[in-house]
């Protein structure tokens, strides 16, 4: 009977594959509304639903050869068409998709459990451990291991690269001939995942922050769990958020001034989901910037360095930059960042190197994103930069700082000795 067949559709397990039989099943169930025994007057509509179901299964036959649910559906359709004297030729019904509940449309009652990360992978275990990565300003990088660096990284660089998504950023000079760079382009590729989402590409550039994927859609496509991937526009042209519930991931992209910022919250299990981790290559959010791309921001605190940047020549930004000294830069940054942590120091560095007050806002919003996305509220503020990356993003060596302190002590001692003499 149709009732028994519908029950089978809901209970047959499927293996992970590109097979779209679940989509066909759900459309058939929605079109027939779970009818037990269609009456005489309902048979034409029921036959139309079966023909639509058969057409859907034929369209996915090539990728469903070894799928048990697919073969069950095909045999069930044939049996029902014989029972109700349905002809194989004739009109087909349009699927009556279930109405989504008000509120968050990602919580679809018919969405497969595997399309909700916490429900599918951690049903009987502890809450997953989430990590955070962010890139902002000139540019400053906070890795998944809470290392903090200021980098050059001009041109295109991979930010994230795992089995589920790729993120690439392009950084361009803020001023011609300057070592100061900022993110001018961002590309995010969400890879096709089981019955949840089709492959989707999101791309943002300076003065273009779309609220949709490259194909114009705002969710994961035509698959059964498509709404487990969704774009939301928070502020038009300035702030979007991408929720990828099937991998437990939240991404925030902003345009602040002319440039882009990026922040992500991702489970460690997803971060480490790679085919060959040992040969993974450079991946900024995980391994940090290469040593030859890191910048020592301490050199920008000296009066000589500040004076040299104040006198620099060349083209200016569209909004003419101010000539900040170290004192005026720190005063400006305190307006938005009262705690003198690395976000504050990054703000000061950016004002000295670019003269663009929008970089102060970039640091401010980067910290706001950390407050929203970081799972450990005790690690929101960072105070010690990572300059020397050991394998596995080990903590930086303290020897340079110790030598600097020793040098300062010897200098004071020599001055004191010269006064005595």
TrEMBL record:
<dbReference type="GO" id="GO:0005886">
    <property type="term" value="C:plasma membrane"/>
</dbReference>
<feature type="region of interest" description="Disordered">
    <location>
        <begin position="88"/>
        <end position="111"/>
    </location>
</feature>
<keyword id="KW-1003">Cell membrane</keyword>
<keyword id="KW-0325">Glycoprotein</keyword>
<dbReference type="Pfam" id="PF06535">
    <property type="entry name" value="RGM_N"/>
</dbReference>
<dbReference type="GO" id="GO:0030509">
    <property type="term" value="P:BMP signaling pathway"/>
</dbReference>
<keyword id="KW-0336">GPI-anchor</keyword>
<dbReference type="InterPro" id="IPR009496">
    <property type="entry name" value="RGM_C"/>
</dbReference>
<dbReference type="InterPro" id="IPR010536">
    <property type="entry name" value="RGM_N"/>
</dbReference>
<keyword id="KW-0449">Lipoprotein</keyword>
<keyword id="KW-1015">Disulfide bond</keyword>
<dbReference type="InterPro" id="IPR040287">
    <property type="entry name" value="RGM"/>
</dbReference>
<dbReference type="GO" id="GO:0098552">
    <property type="term" value="C:side of membrane"/>
</dbReference>
<dbReference type="GO" id="GO:0080090">
    <property type="term" value="P:regulation of primary metabolic process"/>
</dbReference>
<keyword id="KW-0732">Signal</keyword>
<dbReference type="Pfam" id="PF06534">
    <property type="entry name" value="RGM_C"/>
</dbReference>
<comment type="similarity">
    <text>Belongs to the repulsive guidance molecule (RGM) family.</text>
</comment>
<feature type="domain" description="Repulsive guidance molecule C-terminal">
    <location>
        <begin position="129"/>
        <end position="375"/>
    </location>
</feature>
<feature type="domain" description="Repulsive guidance molecule N-terminal">
    <location>
        <begin position="19"/>
        <end position="88"/>
    </location>
</feature>
<keyword id="KW-0472">Membrane</keyword>
<dbReference type="GO" id="GO:0015026">
    <property type="term" value="F:coreceptor activity"/>
</dbReference>
<dbReference type="GO" id="GO:0010604">
    <property type="term" value="P:positive regulation of macromolecule metabolic process"/>
</dbReference>
<keyword id="KW-0068">Autocatalytic cleavage</keyword>
<protein>
    <submittedName>
        <fullName>RGMA protein</fullName>
    </submittedName>
</protein>
